[in-house]
Amino acid sequence: MLTELRGDNQQLSRELRSAHELRERRNDVATASLIENWIDETEPRTWFLSEIMNER
Amino acid sequence: MLTDYHLHLRPDDLEARAEDHFTEENVSRYRALAAERGIAELGVSEHVYRFEQALTVWQHPLWREFAIDDLDAYCEFVRTRTDLRLGIEADFVAGAEDRTANLLQERDFDYIVGSVHFLRELLADVFALYVKTKNFHWHMSGPHFRDYHLLLDEQATQIFAMTDDIAERARKLGGTTIRSISDNHAISA
Questions:
Q1: Lowest-pLDDT range of A17-21, B102-106, B139-143, B183-187
Q2: Full domain range(s) for residue A27
Q3: With a threshold of 0.90, does the pTM exceed it?
C-alpha cells in the first residue's frame, strides 16, 4: 500500500512539474506559484512514505 | 503587423448560444476593438468541444454536455460572412490523436490552437490520490498501525485541500471542473 502511494505521489510531482513549466511559458505567474506550493507539499509526502518503508 | 489568432466569439458557458454570438455584429465589435489597439489581422478559434463533431474524438461527459453546435456551420459562417482567419482550438486528448487529426483535416482551417487543459486532468488525478490515501488510512494494519493511520490521515487532508485549490484555479482560468464521480473516473482513467 505504501509503495503504491509513494509511486502515485512521485507521479503527481512529475505532473505538477510539467504543469508548472507550461504555466511559466504562458506567463501565468499566479498559477505557477500555486503549483510550486503543491510541489512543496507533495515532495515531503513522498519522503515520509519512503522513510517509513525503510523502517519496516 | 499585430495579429490576434486566439479569439472566441462565444463566451465559455453553456447558455451562450451560437446563433447569438456567431453574427456579423459580434465580429464587428471585435474588429472595432482590434482597430483601436492596432491589431490588423484577427482569427477566431472556437473550442472544438462545443461542436457535436468533437464527440467522434472523445465521449467525455462534459463534452457531451457542451457539444451542441455544428462545426461546418461555424466554418461556413467564418468563411462567408467575416474577414477573420478560420481557426479552431483543439484539445490534446491522449490516445485520440488519430481521431483528432481526422476531424481537423476534413476542414480547411487556417490554423489550429492546440490546448492542454491540464488543470482538470490534474484535479482528477489528485482526487483519485485523495480517495486512495484515505482508503489506505482505514485499511492499514500491523505493529505501526497508529503511526501510519495518522500519517495517512494528515496526507489525505492535505491532498483534499489541494483539490479545492485546483478546482478554484481552473474555474478562474475559465475552464470546467469535475461535476460528478463518473466524470472523475472518466478523466483519471
A1: B183-187
A2: 2-55
A3: no
Q: In this predicted complex, what is the ipTM?
A: 0.88
**Torsion on CA atoms B158, B164, B170, B171, rounded to nearest 10:** -170
Q: What is the total count of domains within chain B?
A: 2
CB contact under 8 A, A5 and B119: no
Query: Domain residues for B165?
Result: 119-188
Give the residue with greater pLDDT, B35 vs B180: B35
Sign of CA dihedral B37, B43, B48, B51: positive
Chain A contact for B122, CB < 8 A?
yes
Would you state the cell numbers that stand for residue B70, as one nine-digit string? Answer: 455544428
The alpha carbons of chain A give a radius of gyration, in whole angstroms, of 13
Q: What angle do helix axes B181-188 and B118-139 make, rounded to 10 degrees?
A: 100
